[in-house]
Amino acid sequence: MKAWLLTGGRVVDPAEGRDGPADVLIQDGKIVAVGEAAAALCPPDAERVDVRGCVVSPGWIDMHVHLREPGQTAKETIATGTAAAARGGFTCVVCMPNTSPPIDNAGTVALIRQRAAEQAHVHVLVAGAITKGLAGEELAPIGGLKRAGVVAITDDGRCVQNHELMRRALEYARMFNLPVLDHCQDESLVSDGVAHEGVWSVLLGLRGWPAVGETLMVARDILLAELTGCHVHCQHLSAAGSVALVREARRRGIPVSAEACPHHFVLTDAALAGSEKFWATDGTGVWGMAGRRDLPHWPAYDTRFKMNPPIRSARDREAILEGVADGTIEVLATDHAPHCSYEKEVEFDYAPFGITGLETALPLALMQFYHSGRMTLADLIARFTVGPARILGVDKGTLRPGAAADITVFDPDAEWVFTPEDTRSKSRNSPFYGWPLKGRAVMTFVAGRRVYP
Ligand SMILES: NC(=O)N[C@@H](CC(=O)O)C(=O)O
Ligand SMILES: [Zn+2]
Ligand SMILES: [Zn+2]
């Protein structure tokens, strides 16, 4: 296996408390040395790459991805989804179980792991279901799922409504040392809502989806985490009230964590009224966008802005930004949710929820947190590395010598524009086409192999 020497980059490894210029030597799939020793130990046939101006980071982990296998391969496959991940700077993804059939038994876990071993460009970790068929009625075989290799359980896309069943799920998950990831959503409050319940849903005539529909279930999960001692991780937080509850619960030492997604820390519900209204009312919230003339245009009711949970008010977005910056929200994840064009090209009401995200998360996170001055680079990188690694209990997210060489090299200042022609995903449902982006993955290594470019 080829050896690599990455020279002159800024190595930022929050796990090791390292931030500064250093060379990195990769050999036999592992990190061999970082710093002075790297050049000294470098074998003569190693490929040397000058990465001056770039950041060398532990490989980024995206713990919320829909790869759509088995059963929905018109939207995405393990091969295309992980190619998009590699290109976006991710070296590891956790795939969600809302496939067809769902990942609620050991056989399906084995199938995905085998296909991933053959076809994936990055590591694929599997999340199993909490309940059979994600139906919320009967527990899935949690012990069997664990033995088959899942790293967590979730009914993502759905939320277990029955609190007693959820309590038992947490008790089992704790026995098997699995975190429970929850798509926090009270179905009776959300009902058939399609857009954040607020001024824009009223003006646009879209059925409202109240923030409390999420926050109520976050509260339930905190109480059950306290009762059972099981780690509960709240997925894709979107509402200010949810952030406040998680902050307070973590202060009390309850085993709860949370993630946020780029669309919730970049967009607001004004985007549903079209680009003119969005930029007029909220454009200044996105770092570097104020006053720019090269911004894209989109019409009102554009279904690329429809996702679950919905993009919310400017106040909610601000709370998410604060929560990420102060560590309440320990993880950033994409919730990459590909859908076919024919499914999205319908009236807003009828379109499926979800947007792609693997190829734009890195620049959007850099813009909103690093270029804006809200966070240091090390703290931001931690949200994509040590954060998810800790919650999933996996030995990843560091450049320590001896660790597997999963590495993300990115240029934090590269300016570029994402286009639909240019994606590696099978789907085209990103709201961020045409946006002036800042920051780009330039090279991705998985277990010492270059997987991008
Ligand atoms: N986020 C979404 O809007 N959609 C996801 C489901 C989910 O993550 O809840 C999907 O599978 O399409
Ligand atoms: Zn979800
Ligand atoms: Zn999801």
TrEMBL record:
Residues at which Zn(2+) 1 binds: 64, 66, 156, 335
Gene3D superfamilies: Metal-dependent hydrolases (3.20.20.140), Urease, subunit C, domain 1 (2.30.40.10)
Domain Amidohydrolase: 371-452
Binding-site residues, substrate: 66-68, 98, 308, 339, 353-354
CC cofactor note: Binds 2 Zn(2+) ions per subunit.
Pfam families: Amidohydro_3, DHOase
Catalytic reaction(s) noted: (S)-dihydroorotate + H2O = N-carbamoyl-L-aspartate + H(+)
Metabolic or biological pathway: Pyrimidine metabolism; UMP biosynthesis via de novo pathway; (S)-dihydroorotate from bicarbonate: step 3/3
SUPFAM superfamilies per record: Composite domain of metallo-dependent hydrolases, Metallo-dependent hydrolases
Needed co-factor(s): Zn(2+)
GO cellular component: cytoplasm
Record-annotated active site: 335
Domain Dihydroorotase catalytic span(s) in chain numbering: 55-239
Protein residues bound to Zn(2+) 2: 156, 183, 236
GO MF annotation: an example: dihydroorotase activity
EC number(s) per entry: 3.5.2.3
The organism's place on the tree of life at top rank: Bacteria
GO biological process: 'de novo' UMP biosynthetic process; purine nucleobase catabolic process
Keywords: Hydrolase, Metal-binding, Pyrimidine biosynthesis, Zinc
Listed HAMAP family: PyrC_classI_B (MF_00220_B)
Functional summary from the UniProt entry: Catalyzes the reversible cyclization of carbamoyl aspartate to dihydroorotate.
Annotated family: Belongs to the metallo-dependent hydrolases superfamily. DHOase family. Class I DHOase subfamily.
PANTHER family: ALLANTOINASE
Protein name: Dihydroorotase
Organism: Limisphaera ngatamarikiensis
Lineage: Bacteria, Pseudomonadati, Verrucomicrobiota, Verrucomicrobiia, Limisphaerales
GN (gene name): pyrC
